[in-house]
Amino acid sequence: MAALRRLVSVPLLVRAGEAALGRRGVRALRRSPVRVLPPQKERGAAAEAQRSPRKPPPPAVERSAAGPGLWYEKAAPGDRRLGKVVTIAKSKKFRDHHGKVLLEGQRLIKDALEAGAVLQTLFFSTVGHLKELPEAALKRATLVKVKFEEIKSWSDLVTPQGLIGIFSKPDHTKMFYPAAQLSRSLPLLLVCDNIRDPGNLGTILRSAAGAGCEKVLLTKGCVDPWEPKVLRAGMGAHFRLPVLANLDWESVPSNLPAGIRVCVADNKDPAARAEAASAPRGAGRAGSAPGKSKPMAALEHEDEEGAADVCVPNLATQCYYEDWMQAPVAVVIGGETHGLSLEALHLAASTGGKRLVIPVVPGVDSLNSAIAAGILLFEGKRQLLRRHQQEDERQTLPVV
Predict the structure, then answer these.
(1) I need a labelling partner for 3 at 20 to 30 A (CA). Which of 18, 35, 221, 258 fits?
(2) Full domain range(s) for residue 110
(3) Does residue 228 belong to any structural domain of this protein?
């Protein structure tokens, strides 16, 4: 009897166990799954991504081959790089802050690349433009093909060439100037004193390169040599000789060779200067007190200094075609508005320099600064070459 009870109870226990398991399975299905939390940094990034609006993906870049190993991109509508072109061209502050300059035209870009300037981005309208430029330099840059109409809208040239390059701001210590320029370099330097007109400065740099100047120094107050108008007027002179810009007058002597003599360009002939210096103050400039005389140089700088007793050194004065080229020599060209600064005159006096006068017809105030620079530089070159020729002739004379 007891055995029969045990046999009957076993199925009951099995069914009870199955019912319990079934209830636990139902409860397990009703439970929510365990949430796995990411690290704190990833949670913060995910929350920030949800709060900020999603940016549309950048447009696909279409790349094409311009030759073996040379690829270029086709600019998509709304390419932000195109907007920087105008900013670099117009803003000196932007150029200085980002260390970039903009060059336009095949000739200027080619001169820059051959001199070792670093090309970052080149915008061009036709693939044929690339064939005239050094291929090795193009491979290291970003090439972007744009429509000619867009380049024309950025350019301020009358006839754009469809070629614009953005370069790293050149460093004159790392440039490779043409061998022909270096072989004809003379111990003749040029200092620009407050030249503010872009066309004049570009023409001055071009004359300095043509005369064979060793280098050009630009003091503070001069226009930025990397402005587009200066670059166009310079016609590649920036990449033919060193141009040191934005110099304080205190640092100018350290950039000049030892034993150099500094001469300044003048626009008053010696007779007129002596007459003005000896004339009564009442016969001089308007607003002067009568009964006293004063050197002409002091009269020139009295207004800007605002003092009656300005200390202006007296420099020997001579015409530009008289002998003054004793190497090495630096010529200072003053600005169109204020002329020579007192610092330039003091520097000339400390080196035994002179005032070089270019006589003009009475009634003509002065020459354009670029014209004056060209006259003095090529006259200095003529005098130096003549002196070398005379020395060579003396060395070849037979000994009696």
Answers:
(1) 18
(2) 63-174
(3) yes
Q: Are strands 119-124 and 163-168 parallel, antiparallel or unpaired?
A: antiparallel
How do beta strands 261-266 and 354-357 pair? parallel
Over residues 223-250, the pLDDT tens digits come to 999 999 999 999 999 999 999 999 999 9
Residue 156 confidence (pLDDT): 74
Residue 265 three-state SS: strand
Looking at the fold, whether 103 and 235 belong to one and the same domain comes out as no
- Is the pLDDT confidence value at 18 over 90? no
354 pLDDT band, cuts 50/70/90, is very high
Output the DSSP codes for 61-105.
PEEEEEETTEEEEEPPTT-GGGHHHHHHHH-HHHHHHHTEEEEES
Between 94 and 284, the more confident residue is 94
pLDDT(303) > 80: no
pLDDT at 327: 79
pLDDT of residue 294 exceeding 50: no
Regarding whether 249 and 362 lie in a shared domain, the answer is yes
Q: Note the Cα 356 to chain centre separation in Å.
A: 31
Separation CA 49–CA 252 (nearest Å) = 55
Kindly tell me if the per-residue pLDDT of 394 is higher than 90: no
Q: From the CB of residue 144, how many other CB atoms can be counted at a distance below 10 Å?
A: 20
Of 139, 174, 209, the one marking the end of a domain is 174
Contacts of 8 (CB under 8 A, 6+ apart): none
pTM: 0.75
- C-alpha to C-alpha distance for 368 and 58, rounded to whole angstroms: 52
Largest CA distance in the chain: 162
Residues 54-58: contacts with CB under 8 Å, at least 24 apart: none
| One-letter amino acid for residue 199 of the chain | G
Looking at the structure, do residues 136 and 198 belong to the same domain, yes or no?
A: no
Burial 261-280 (b: 16+ CB within 10 A, else e): bbbbbbbbbeeebeebbeee
Residue 102 within a domain: yes
Output the domain CATH number for residue 382: 3.40.1280.10
